[in-house]
Amino acid sequence: MKYDFDTVHDRRKTDSVKWAVLDDELPMWVADMDFETAPEVKEALVERAAHGIFGYTDITDEWYDAYINWWGRRHGLCMEKPALMFCTGVIAAISSVVRKLTTPNENVLIQTPVYNIFFNSILNNGCRVSENGLIYENGEYKVDFADLEKKLSDPQTSLMILCNPHNPVGKIWDKETLSRIGELCFKHHVTVISDEIHCDIAKPGKSYIPFASVSDVCKSISITCIAPTKTFNLAGVQTSAVYVPDPVLRHKVWRAINTDEVAEPNAFATVGAITAFNKGEQWCDRMNEYVFENRRIAEEYIDKEIPEIGIVRGEATYLLWIDVRNVGNSREIANYLRKTTGLYITAGSVYGSAGEGFLRMNIACPRALLYDGLQRLYMGITGFLNRRS
Questions:
Q1: Cys staple from 190: which of 19, 31, 125, 185, with CB 3.0 to 4.6 Å?
Q2: How many CA atoms lie within 13 A of 110 on its CB side?
Q3: Confidence band (pLDDT; 50, 70, 90) for 389?
Q4: DSSP class of residue 350?
């Protein structure tokens, strides 16, 4: 089947968070796509809506099988049915787990620059953020293991939130890196929450490695958060899963999400996930081809037309991580871009201190919007430099 990723859909006046902008503005910030979901998923949701009764919804064997088969087939992770739990969202799960597995003033470790809402999940629950800043050298990000062990060894550190693949830098962590993280966390009695929501958005020919699949150690200390929402543009449906192999840890997570009342699906949550994983594989592959062609176009355009800035060559996510350290302050640049060109992208400083000097730009959009965004980026950076000179 041929899928359409080129049509520009008008999302204004649809209560879209992303598109709540002025008429002349182009939002390329928050991580949702400007593509329709897979037609198979859309058809299933329309059929469910046509039924007209939206009462309480149960989790069925079909839901478990959809997750188990998808992760086994595409990612080599053999999940056991009892270890899977429904949750309304990955962040809902993370926040619930932080509440359950920590006490106030304990440390939760994150590897910055990283998804900014992790900070909220930690701070809003009375804990402290422990930043293990990633090392950026020669266009590549890697883990600072000396700093990681130092911070994990603090008796006040009880949790680590791993981002795998890493948002915003687009890094697919290799097996050796994940194994070392797992061994250090096990050594220092730290539980790992692995946010793997971006796992299916990867460069064609590449595949991410689930943290829980790396070793028995990683499996025993891991709480893995997964969902179809980023891949199939279903964030508004509120559907995800939590995979916890260890039965003792699993019970704690089960208590956490049930106490917080985020363990029950709405009428569309299971339908969307089941259909995406059972019927959306071909669409997912075509989407990745389109998005990574967008990435190639963006990289070549920036290299040629805006040499004053750089771009990290990511292997995953539909998010560009743009290096503007030679231009100026990222927050100032982001504000200038929006004010003068209408391009709305995110300052890297919101992703932690290691994100200063970078911008994040969402390119999961029809090519016409991509070219528009790149031209606005060019005009904005040029104007910013001219203003400064």
A1: 185
A2: 26
A3: low
A4: G
Q: Which fold has domain 26-38+281-388?
A: Aspartate Aminotransferase, domain 1 (3.90.1150)
User: Please, where are the H alpha helices in the chain?
Assistant: 39-51, 61-75, 90-101, 117-123, 145-152, 175-187, 216-220, 229-232, 247-259, 269-279, 281-305, 330-341, 367-388
Using DSSP, state whether 230 is helix, strand or coil: helix
Closest C-alpha among 224, 228, 222, 219 to residue 200:
228
Please work out, in degrees rounded to the nearest 5, the angle formed at the alpha carbon of residue 249 by the alpha carbons of 232 and 246.
Answer: 80
Q: Which residue has the tokens 């979901």?
A: 37
377/383 Cα distance (integer angstroms): 10
pLDDT in tens, 162-209: 999 999 999 999 999 999 999 999 999 999 999 999 999 999 999 999
Among candidate residues 364, 353, 283, the one with its CA nearest the CA of residue 320 = 364
Residue identified by tokens 């804990």 is 127
128 and 277 Cβ atoms separated by less than 8 Å: no
| Class for the domain spanning 42-279 | alpha beta
pTM exceeds 0.70, yes or no: yes
